């Protein structure tokens, strides 16, 4: 067992490659089930599954490209994803959710999600660099995503970018990636649970009033509609893409984007309990594939923080409704789980100082 936590030696090469291939097989099964269930639900309820299928395809394509780029040129690939996301956030007005999402919460959609993914990719680039000076520069560039978020007037982007960079810096001394990924997963679960509790009206009056002020009354009404539809159709849901046809709140706002602005509640309303379970399984697969990654613990946790930020925003917004975001999720996950084409240490673990190296523990 070497400093990276991987067993080395020619006798174990086949076993290691088989072990590292298991997460990919799990991912194919999970994403395949997501696509298949959307088709089943759409067929039963006359729904429109194109959005779900496009999102699954974007994740798969991004993941494949990220694995290739991360294996060949980890620093360059990470920088390309990070800088590309920043450019999109700055120059593409269509990337920002319109007009329903402009609330006190900020742009809790594609813009904030792209900024979080960009910060995560630049942090991955920093931890993949061989020279300490370059690592510092890339971390400063990642911190610059906070300024970009302020320029595009995205308070949510400022918060999540700062959180991703701080998590990346904190990962410098964290030896256990399992502990870090568990904390990230619990964070997403808590945010999703609060959203569902707020939608069902089971929170005390004080927290409910505070969250409603932050999120906006209209968003809470959309969530109430989604809960009502989910309770009326718990098995198959109402069908993909049919929330906008059945929501009383949306019927009163013809300019809205037709989304409930919560991935969890949208899946519950449109694809039932099985759809929610598949969405949760897909997120758990991301954490699992990061845990099994051959990359250093610092790269894994930087990517995990960014992906968790996107997941948390998706529970209170429509970030996953944009192909740029779902493709970015796949790209970052692929880069953070890429394997070197040569036997030996992954590029970033070989480059990192010994005290910064980490394994699976």
Protein described:
This protein has 361 residues and is mostly helical. The chain has 15 helices and no strands. The two termini are 12 Å apart.
Give the helices and strands, then pairings:
Blueprint lengths: L12 H33 L4 H23 L1 H18 L18 H19 L3 H20 L3 H16 L6 H24 L4 H11 L1 H16 L10 H4 L1 H4 L11 H29 L5 H18 L8 H14 L10 H5 L10
Helix pairs in contact: 1-2, 1-12, 2-3, 2-14, 3-4, 3-5, 3-14, 4-5, 4-6, 4-13, 4-14, 5-6, 6-13, 7-9, 7-12, 7-13, 9-12, 12-13, 13-14
Short structural description:
The chain has helices at residues 13-45, 50-72, 74-91, 110-128, 132-151, 155-170, 177-200, 205-215, 217-232, 243-246, 248-251, 263-291, 297-314, 323-336, 347-351.
N-end to C-end Cα span:
12 Å
Gyration radius, to the nearest Å? 20 Å
Q: How helical, in percent, are the residues?
A: over 70%
What is the number of helices?
15
Unreliable stretches covering 5 or more consecutive residues: 1-16, 94-107, 349-359
Structural class: mainly alpha
Secondary-structure element order, N to C: HHHHHHHHHHHHHHH
Q: Strand fraction band?
A: under 5%
Can you summarize the main beta sheet? none
| Cα shape | globular
The average pLDDT score comes to 84
Total beta strand runs: 0
Q: Which key terms come to mind for this protein?
A:
mainly alpha, 15 helices, 361 residues, disordered N terminus, 70% helix, disordered C terminus, globular
């Amino acid at each position: 067992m070497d400093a990276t936590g991987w067993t080395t030696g020619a006798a174990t090469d086949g076993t290691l490659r088989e072990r590292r291939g298991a997460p990919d097989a799990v991912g194919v099964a999970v994403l395949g089930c997501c696509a298949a269930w959307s088709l089943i639900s759409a067929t039963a309820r006359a729904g429109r599954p194109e959005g779900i299928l496009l999102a699954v395809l974007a994740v798969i394509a991004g993941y494949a490209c990220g694995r290739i780029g991360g294996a060949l040129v980890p620093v360059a690939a990470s920088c390309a994803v990070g800088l590309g996301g920043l450019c999109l956030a700055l120059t593409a007005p269509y990337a920002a959710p319109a007009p329903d999402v402009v609330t006190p919460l900020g742009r809790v959609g594609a813009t904030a999600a792209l900024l979080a993914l960009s910060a995560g990719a630049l942090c991955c680039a920093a931890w993949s660099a061989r020279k300490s000076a370059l690592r510092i520069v890339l971390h400063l560039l990642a911190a610059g995503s906070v300024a970009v978020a302020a320029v595009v007037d995205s308070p949510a982007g400022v918060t999540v970018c700062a959180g991703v960079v701080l998590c990346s810096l904190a990962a410098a001394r964290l030896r256990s990636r399992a502990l870090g990924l568990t904390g990230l997963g619990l964070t997403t679960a808590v945010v999703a649970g609060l959203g569902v509790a707020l939608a069902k009206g089971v929170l005390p009056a004080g927290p409910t009033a505070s969250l409603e002020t932050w999120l906006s009354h209209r968003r809470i009404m959309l969530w109430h509609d989604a809960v009502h539809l989910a309770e009326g159709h718990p098995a198959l849901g109402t069908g993909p893409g049919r929330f906008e046809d059945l929501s009383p709140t949306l019927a009163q706002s013809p300019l809205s984007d037709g989304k409930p602005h919560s991935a969890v509640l949208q899946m519950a309303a449109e694809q039932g309990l099985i759809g929610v379970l598949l969405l949760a399984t897909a997120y758990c697969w991301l954490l699992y594939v990061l845990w099994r990654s051959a990359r250093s613990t610092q790269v894994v946790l930087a990517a995990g923080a960014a992906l968790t930020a996107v997941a948390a925003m998706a529970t209170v917004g429509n970030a996953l409704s944009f192909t740029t975001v779902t493709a970015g999720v796949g790209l970052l996950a692929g880069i953070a789980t890429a394997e070197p084409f040569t036997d030996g240490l992954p590029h970033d673990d070989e480059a990192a100082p010994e005290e910064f190296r980490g394994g699976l523990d």
